[in-house]
Amino acid sequence: MSKLIATNLLLLFVCHLHLIVISHAFSDLEVLMFLKASLIGPGGAGLDDWDDSKTGGDGGGSLHCSFSGVTCDDNSRVTSLNITSVPLFGTIAPEIGLLDKLVNLSLVADNLTGPIPPEMSKLTSLRIVYLSHNDFKGVLNGELVMKMAELEVFDCYDNSLTGLLPTEFVKLPKLRTLNLGGNFFYGSIPEEYAEFQTLEILLLFGNGLSGRIPPGLGRLRNLQNLSLGYYNKYDGGIPPEFGSLSNLRHLDLGGCNLTGEIPATLGKLKQMDTLFLQENNLTGLLPVEFSGCICLMSFDVSLNNLTGEIPMEYSALKNLTLLNLFHNRFHGPVPSYVGDLPNLEVLQIWENEFTFELPENLGSNGRLKQLDISSNHITGMIPRDLCKGGKLEMLILMKNFLLGPIPEKLGECKSLIEFRAMRNFLNGTIPAGMFNLPSLDMIELTDNYLTGDLPQEIGNVKLGSLILSNNRITGNIPPAIGNLKELQTLSLDMNQLVGGMPEEISNLKKLSVLNLEGNGLTGEIPVFLSQCSKLTNLDLSRNNLHGVIPRELTTLQVLNALNLSRNQLTGEIPGELGLMNGLTSLDLSYNDFTGVRPTDGLLKFFPNRSFEGNPNLCPPHARICASASNSGHGSRSGLMTTTSKIVIALVALLTVLLIFACVWMKIRLRNFEKSRAWKLTPFQKLEFNTEDVLECLKEENIIGKGGAGIVYRGSMPAGVEVAIKRLIGHSAGQRDHGFTAEIQTLGKIRHRHIVRLLGYLCNKDTNLLLYEYMSNGSLGEILHGNKGAHLQWESRYRIAVEAAKGLCYLHHDCSPSIIHRDVKSNNILLDSDYEAHVADFGLAKFFHNNGASECMSSIAGSYGYIAPEYAYTLKIDQKSDVYSFGVVLLELITGRKPVGEFGEGVDIVMWVRNTMSELSKPSDAASVLAILDSRLTQYPLASAVNLFKIAMMCVEDESSARPTMRAVVHMLTSSPLQIAGAGAGAAEVQPNLL
Ligand SMILES: *[C@@H]1O[C@H](CO)[C@@H](O)[C@H](O)[C@H]1NC(C)=O
Ligand SMILES: *[C@@H]1O[C@H](CO)[C@@H](O)[C@H](O)[C@H]1NC(C)=O
Questions:
Q1: 324, 664, 913, 973: which has the highest count of C-beta atoms within 10 A?
Q2: Is 668 inside a domain boundary?
Q3: What is the pTM of this model?
Q4: pLDDT at 870
């Protein structure tokens, strides 16, 4: 035994000796050359001037002191190595341990990887270590810093380091800054961190930390900046002890699962200028005591569950520049002193229950930049001085009860970029100046009571969207509208405009949507519209237009919807319309067209509905068409007077009548038979007919069966594939329950990530829904089948984002909003590029006639996806969809089915929670690794953690704690690797990092 120890000692001694020998054997020049060799990895570049070929290699010179990034002392020993933003891609060689005079080591944003070499522990002179924005990996061992008694700054922000937070830092007598943010550290914040003596900055945000935040941190009297949030997920709330951090200026606890109330003690932080508590589950009221934080500039408590009113006492917070209260349950007024805050720049209070009027003098401080009060119950007038200082950029007032006119002064607000005020009760005229603002990109004032004419003077400005639908605007469309060269959307529908369309519209070369529906426009359809070559959507319906459809219109290459219905248009319908390849929607109904209905090209696929209400239009292929011969009146001679001619004419007339009657009878009969059998309602141009569809309803074409129906695959003659869903348990013969109306609504929905409903086919007892065919089937089939391994991380994440966007559209952008009711992996379909499309939305409520067992699955989703509140309220809302979506995210992460794999009564959510609770060192990262689909070969941990975190928010038991789909999309798309971008708070921290 003792022999063994002796041998070990000897070995140790030899090693030690060896090192000493090395340190004497290599000059700093040689060490730097070692470093260079390993710093530059595969594909790396830079450090070109680190070149030792000019010396004899004696090592005594000072050549290396002139290398870029190198600083030496008088003895030519390296004291500082500072290499920033050089794409090196290599690692730090262990030889760095030989630069024992090094004081400053800054290797920032050099794309370095590998471990931080333990040999660095010998660099006992180090004062400053910056290793941020690289990809250093491995466990950060505290022994590394144990002997660095001089260390003042240690910053390894934004790397891939892991392990528990090292406690050794606490012993360093001079440490001022410790930044371990943006890594994968897990476990709790050590209680020992309360013992730091000199620490001023402690940044631990953006890791996988858990447990309670140690109250002892309240003892760090020198602390100025404390940031612990984002991606960390703590138990419990904010320690009231933080009220003792008397030097604290910046406290950022955003996005880290904090619960409970905001401690009133924080009101003692007299120096605090920034308090970020957004994106938590904080409840209760805003503490009145915060009125003591007189330095407070940025105050963000958005995205919590806070209630109550904004305390009157906050009038003392004269330095507030940012006040974010959105998405809570605040009520009461926005106090009038908010208007007096001299520095207020950002006020965002959307999605609350605020009432009363806005402070009359809001904005009169001359600094307001952003105001968003959407979705409250605010009434009164729009304050006059919002843009007094000429800084206002965003003014969003949607969905409130605002009255009165838009202040004239907003028409002088040159800084304004976005102005949205739809769904209010605004009246009066839109300030003329508004149409001349140089930065304005969007005006959206739909659904108000605005009156007056559009101004005759419109500047040559950037406006991209001008949306004034459903108001009471009168007068002509001014010719000056042609000055809006950047305009893409012009929606003036449902107003009281009169006169013709001015020729200047043809200057709008970027115009994509022109909607003038429901006005009193007169004149002919102008030929010059054909010069707006980017038009995709042209709606001139419900006006008083006359004349013919100009053939030139058919040169619009990208037009896909043309609505000219309900005018007094005449003449023949140009067959060239059928050659416009993009046209998917055409409505020419209720006009006065004559001649034979053309069937050129695509025209034969449009339904009769597109042409109905034209009494003088002959059906397609009519051999004899009275209106057509009438229209040829130019060649008619009035000189036929002889009886023979009269007789001939009479005979001819009789023959015509007879033939016409026959044709008419035949058509009637055919239509009658058809209507008795099947009725096809297309929602876009269909290149097939009823027979084509019915032919596909064969056993061998079945591609799926579910609670609500059987799905067939149909190959249509033109090579188009469709999915035909035959609904069970509901038929038009039974009471309709609004089914047809609902289908109509669904047919109108167009979104890239929603499966398009092409049409609807029904007869007395069958309903068939025709959908786009998705060649890769459902996410559920793929994920839970043997092809699941092909779906690697990147695809899964992309599918999550795409499906979220589809759902978000249904919830937030459709009017009325649509609840899916059956979100599950089997209802997320993948096209040939594996792009995700949400299917089967909004239907589940119509299937209450099914058997008892299917009752659950059809009314409110499928087993394993049902939100807990359904069990006791039997009600569902958007948040129930969010829950189901969370389950889908868990399926993507784990590759497991929502039920059936975890034992009796255990679903995927419970299983994940159980697994997490059994971890010895719980953290998001550890949880993810414990549940991650083993078929995933490569995945960025940060991305997996992000998806997991979002999934767990979605499956919160309390429906109000779940995010909205809009928030989900936001969280999914703000990249997890750019942790600094995760919230306003992190962005604020940035300047301190380097
Ligand atoms: C490193 O060099 C950059 C300029 O290249 C300088 O801005 C930065 O302050 C230096 N960092 C340290 C810690 O010396
Ligand atoms: C190198 O790192 C920087 C920041 O750390 C990053 O923005 C950049 O994309 C990386 N370059 C490559 C080629 O990976």
A1: 324
A2: no
A3: 0.64
A4: 75
